[in-house]
Amino acid sequence: MSRLAIKICGLSTPDTVGAAIKAGASHLGFVHFPKSPRHVEAGQIRALAAQVPAHIDRVAVLVDPADDILTQLIATNSLTALQLHGRESPERAAAIRQRFNLPVWKAISVKTRADIDAAKAYSGAADLLLFDAKTPDGAALPGGMGLRFDWTLLRGVPISLPWGLSGGLGIDNVAEAIRITGAPMIDVSSGVESAPGIKSVDKIMAFCKAAQPS
């Protein structure tokens, strides 16, 4: 059985990055979106990523990014993937992937089975799909709100790309989420915070332990 991939997203301080590394996270996420309480500038990403061992992936999380923003982030030489969390079309995802030569992840907002089925359009355009809860209309942020969707919607669905599960995951429900969905990757942000944008070292450690009990 392959090892579960764990992404701790929205990291912004050296101590929480260190905790994620120590806890066994396989992927670290850095949000570059000024409206988010988890936003970090390109220079901060460079500094935080410098403490990350090469075997751990470093993912920039972006919302409908313009090419100049992507160019600035790529120039940090800190990233191993780009996660698109806005309304990026398959064509836009493919264009970013081709121009910037990094794996592209696409977050898929899910409320119904139809949302999961629609993700097929990203085959050939993205390298990984991340199924997240659909946020309410008018919400300022596309993720990190602690919302979950009906995980049983993923049962038996053929997914053509590598994929992960996000949205509403926490210490108390991550084992159930993995059992229901069979997710090969899990992604947590608000579920390991003491306040919006403030990661908790203790919660990061506890989440990773709950996700992969010995």
From TrEMBL:
**What reaction(s) does this enzyme catalyze?**
N-(5-phospho-beta-D-ribosyl)anthranilate = 1-(2-carboxyphenylamino)-1-deoxy-D-ribulose 5-phosphate
Q: Which residues form a coiled coil?
A: none
Enzyme Commission number(s) of this protein: 5.3.1.24
Database matches in SUPFAM superfamilies: Ribulose-phoshate binding barrel (SSF51366)
Query: Which CDD domains does this entry report, sorted A to Z?
Result: PRAI
Keyword field contains Amino-acid biosynthesis: yes
Q: Which domain of life is it from?
A: Bacteria
Q: Does the keyword Cell cycle apply?
A: no
Which key words tag this protein in UniProt? Answer: Amino-acid biosynthesis, Aromatic amino acid biosynthesis, Isomerase, Tryptophan biosynthesis
Offer an example of a GO molecular function term for this protein.
Answer: phosphoribosylanthranilate isomerase activity
Q: Which Pfam family would be a valid example here?
A: PRAI
| InterPro entries documented for this protein | Aldolase_TIM (IPR013785), PRAI_dom (IPR001240), RibuloseP-bd_barrel (IPR011060), TrpF_fam (IPR044643)
* Annotated GO biological process: L-tryptophan biosynthetic process
What's the top EC group for this one? isomerase
Domain N-(5'phosphoribosyl) anthranilate isomerase (PRAI) residues, every copy: 6-209
Name the family the entry cites: Belongs to the TrpF family.
Q: What is this protein called?
A: N-(5'-phosphoribosyl)anthranilate isomerase
Tell me which species this is from.
Sphingobium quisquiliarum P25
